Amino acid sequence: MKVEHAPEANPNRGYSYVGQENVANISGYEKGVGPGTTRDIKETLDMGCPDDSLVDNLWFPEEGLPGFRSFMENFYSKAFQTELNILSALAITLGISEEHLRLLHCRAENEFRLLHYPAIPASELSDGFATRIAEHTDFDTSTMLFQDSVGGLQVEDQNQPGIFHNVESSACTDIILNIGDSLQRLTNDTFKAACHRVTYPPTVKANDDEIIPERYSIAYFAKPNRNAPLLPLTEFITDETLSAQLTIAIRYMHSQEFVPEGLHRGNTLFQSFRGLNQLSTEQLYELHAKPIQEPVKD
Ligand SMILES: O=C(O)CCC(=O)C(=O)O
Ligand SMILES: [Fe+2]
């Protein structure tokens, strides 16, 4: 095999065998039964943008799989065009600048993966620690998912945490669109990332003495440009967000010893009040006094 994925998670390119990637091992993972506890029984082939300036794709020799590379590159570029249309639709729905949202994604620094879940005895998933892919949210802005008819994909109800609903496709060309962490951040939680997982199909019982059929799927992860600032877009910044960001900034500065020891979260009060966003600077000064301006010293 010429296209083995490196043992580390990045760059995310090439073939990963069953057991190589477990989403529950990814740093910051806080879902399901807990970090590092769940095994994914899946194998994947990961690719990225054919013209990525930082990372090359890993391809099989052309004679081994004729036409595969050009087929995949063509799929990538069609998926990118679809992504741009989806971004426009999202911007219109959210009432934000379509051009700005598309510009944040214009470099097509995306990821694209083929997934295969091998056939396994249902009993292998019965202990709750092995699964096809553990529950998680994707890091990206949005994911286009394509699946065969085997079943097992589930999405968590955002109003009832812990309750998962089956997601079925009527054809393998159906696009299932998942919101990812980056869009949640850009919209300051207005759109929440979809928590999803793949388990055994609804017709199979975990303790059944039967074989769960193999399953195939494709995921196209649409991501912001690497150099895009992943801060909430100005349209979504509220006074509460500003207070939270200031608190984080103070904590960071304190941890780096940039500020005198006396200043910390415990004695710093950020007073947030309704209507801050509507006030002009003059009205703000009138209500809450003008700040004392001090020249910046070295
Ligand atoms: O196989 C699927 O349907 C889901 C795959 C997935 O969620 C992922 O790779 O992030
Ligand atoms: Fe996912």
Automatic annotation (TrEMBL):
One Pfam family from the record? 2OG-FeII_Oxy
Domain annotation Fe2OG dioxygenase: ranges: 102-224
InterPro entries referenced in this protein's UniProt entry, alphabetically: IPNS-like_FE2OG_OXY (IPR044861), IPNS-like_sf (IPR027443), Iron_ascorbate_oxido_reductase (IPR050231), Oxoglu/Fe-dep_dioxygenase_dom (IPR005123)
Q: Which PROSITE patterns match?
A: FE2OG_OXY
Record's keyword annotation contains GTP-binding: no
Give the record's family classification: Belongs to the iron/ascorbate-dependent oxidoreductase family.
Protein's name in the database: Fe2OG dioxygenase domain-containing protein
